[in-house]
Design goal:
613 residues; alpha/beta; 6-stranded parallel β-sheet; 29 helices; 24 strands; 43% helix; 16% strand; globular; binds adenosine-5'-triphosphate; helicase; DNA damage; P-loop_NTPase
């Protein structure tokens, strides 16, 4: 699958030529259109919106588009659906996913025992709050449905909430449920498992004792979506005809799932399974085309009937359509201030009621600087940015630094790591990884001096000057003991996936080189360098690649000229990768322009869901 997608997204010109040749088209206007579509896919859009004039123009070129562009019922390489032009495969992904979702939204709450739910909820949320406990509301709403989205920023309690939801579902079930946890990348899956184990530890001790038999049935390890679906060449083992064997699936970091993977996932789900997607709708969308999670989170509403039902179950007075509620972010309030809830019978109205948004960050209560900066970015409040940096010592903004000074400062931050990696008495890769995860450089761009590749090269030169590393060449690549690498390709043979981060090590006895990777459910994996899939150094990584990871201190490096790639979601994602400190290296006008820039990816999902049930 990955290889096929790369053909379209990475080589737009070639795809245009091949399609034109296949359809025997020799028409520059049509060729330009295919190229525009391929380029927009590369930018993350699922489709291309055509104007009425462009559509009229196409219909006049009937001869030249015959066999190339067809309606949704035709089998042509390109599909024109209303005003939206798709590559056939993406039209199919979006259409089938929407159908699966609509089926799920249609089979809501059959025979739920609301009295039993209320009883268990009160055990799981023993403290009655003065204000509405939105975590409790989220669990209550999710227990009435087989599809739920829980969106929230870092530390808003998504994992704690989903743990209580799983305890509730398992407590209600007549037979023990098969529950599985998954995430788009290995790193995100590892963090999800760790989060679950922490959340269990943090349950009040009386609840832990009382719920012990149920707790023992819950998974505390998560797997990657690829592993869950079962890689099988370029396809997956599980699909509509051979669905997954599970009752409940929880997927974390769902904002990272692209349209293609979302389609494959929903195709492989048994119709009776309950699905819970967790994520942060404000984060960057997936690397590949689509912004499915944020599209699904576009509206969040509580109908009057649902408000009554949830009030009864939770013992809080839940307002219908809670516009202006403290729990909602100002941006969100603005977004919904003109939406009045009508008992609409469209799928998007059904979906809006399955979207639970958590807003209070427990994590940022102790590190308020990061929370304040993240909120200022989300609210696109430029006037708040400078004051936020002035007030919080955990935040530093280097607006006018020279390039070399910046590199010097970034390199210094890796000193603690090289001290442990070069200490022959410290041979524990977990200590190495924990030390290197204290600091990471995140870049907006991939290429150029301010991109991840350029910064990595420059940092390596500095590491060498400081005698922290002694590079040698193998298979044409510079390697050294302690080199931090990121895999940039899925490789089923080695079990390594795009985004996996490992450490290169030379065996002291044999002198052989290996890269070691932390495993979700096993010891460290050791792979000889010549068997590694394609990789890059990872002292600096793009913000896109950093999704699903967290570091104590994050340095965000922006280029010295504005690039449209810098936008609100990118900056928010970068800032929220930090647990303690953020150093922002970028000119003020570039940061301001980036915060104001909030593009939306094109897709037809909203239109498809805006259908009558
Ligand atoms: N209702 C609550 N009251 C007090 N503390 C809470 C509550 N909910 C969550 N926390 C605490 O907040 C922290 C973050 O919670 P949790 O890990 O569930 O959030 P998360 O949204 O999953 O975080 P992340 O974005 O890092 O995955 C944890 O220390 C947790 O114990």
């Amino acid at each position: 699958m990955q290889a096929e997608l790369q053909t379209v997204t990475e080589f737009p010109e070639q795809i245009t030529k091949v399609l034109s040749l296949l359809a025997q088209i020799d028409n520059p206007v049509v060729e330009a259109l295919i190229l525009r579509l391929a380029n927009s896919l590369q930018e993350g859009h699922v489709c291309l919106h055509l104007s009425t004039d462009e559509i009229n123009d196409l219909s006049h070129r009937h001869q030249s588009i015959n066999g190339l562009i067809g309606s949704p019922t035709e089998f042509t390489p390109l599909i024109l659906d209303g005003h939206k032009l798709y590559f056939h495969r993406y039209w199919l992904y979006e259409d089938r996913f929407a159908n699966q979702l609509c089926k799920r939204l249609n089979q809501q709450s059959a025979n739920v025992d609301e009295a039993q739910i209320k009883l268990l909820l009160n055990k799981l949320f023993a403290n009655k709050l003065d204000d509405i406990d939105w975590q409790k509301v989220a669990v209550a709403a999710a227990s009435l449905s087989n599809f739920t989205i829980i969106s929230g920023g870092p530390g808003t309690g998504k994992t704690s909430t989903v743990l209580r939801l799983l305890l509730l579902l398992q407590g209600l079930a007549k037979q023990p449920l098969t529950i599985r946890l998954a995430a788009p990348t290995g790193k995100a899956a590892a963090r999800m498992g760790e989060g679950m184990r922490n959340a269990i530890q943090k349950l009040p001790s009386d609840a832990q004792a009382e719920l012990k038999p149920i707790l023992e049935t819950l998974p505390t390890q998560a797997e990657t979506l690829h592993r869950l679906l079962g890689p099988n060449g370029h396809r997956f083992t599980h699909h509509a005809l051979y669905p997954l064997s599970l009752d409940v699936l929880v997927v974390d970091e769902a904002s990272m799932i692209d349209q293609a993977m979302m389609y494959h996932l929903f195709e492989a789900l048994p119709p009776s399974a309950t699905v819970i997607l967790l994520g942060d709708k404000d984060q960057l969308s997936s690397v590949d085309a689509g912004s499915v999670f944020s599209d699904l989170c576009e509206k969040t509403l509580i109908s009057p009937a649902n408000a009554t039902r949830l009030s009864e179950i939770t013992d809080y007075q839940i307002p219908a359509n809670p516009v202006g509620n403290q729990n909602m972010h100002p941006v969100q309030n603005d977004m919904f201030s003109d939406i009045e809830f009508t008992e609409s019978n469209t799928y998007d109205a059904l979906l809006a009621q399955q979207v639970q948004v958590l807003k209070h960050s427990y994590r940022f209560a102790s590190v308020p600087g990061i929370g304040a900066l993240a909120n200022a970015i989300l609210a696109q409040d430029l006037s708040a940015l400078n004051p936020v940096f002035e007030v919080h010592p955990s935040l530093v903004w280097q607006k006018n630094a020279e390039y070399e000074d910046m590199l010097g400062s970034l390199a210094e931050r890796f000193q603690p790591y090289f001290e442990v990696i070069n200490d022959s008495l410290i041979n524990d890769p977990t200590i190495w990884m924990n030390t290197v995860d204290q600091f990471r450089v995140l870049t907006a761009l991939k290429d150029g001096p301010y991109g991840a590749l350029g910064i990595n090269r420059a940092l390596e030169r500095r590491f060498q000057l400081k005698h922290w590393i002694r590079p040698t060449t193998q298979n044409g690549r510079s390697i050294y003991h302690g080199l931090l690498i990121m895999v940039v390709q899925n490789d089923y043979q080695s079990g390594l996936f795009n985004g996996d981060v490992g450490i290169v090590q030379q065996d002291q006895q044999t002198g052989k080189w290996h890269a070691r990777f932390p495993q979700i459910d096993a010891d460290w994996k050791s792979i000889p360098l010549n068997r590694l899939p394609d990789w890059v150094p990872a002292w600096a990584m793009t913000i896109h690649k950093s999704q699903g990871s967290e570091f104590d201190h994050v340095a965000i490096v922006l280029p010295n000229q504005f690039s449209p790639i810098i936008n609100r979601s990118l900056l928010y994602t970068a800032v929220t990768r930090a647990k303690q400190n953020v150093t922002l290296w970028g000119k003020q006008n570039i940061v301001f322009e980036g915060v104001k820039n909030h593009p939306k990816r094109m897709s037809g999902l909203a239109d498809r869901l805006n259908r009558v049930t």
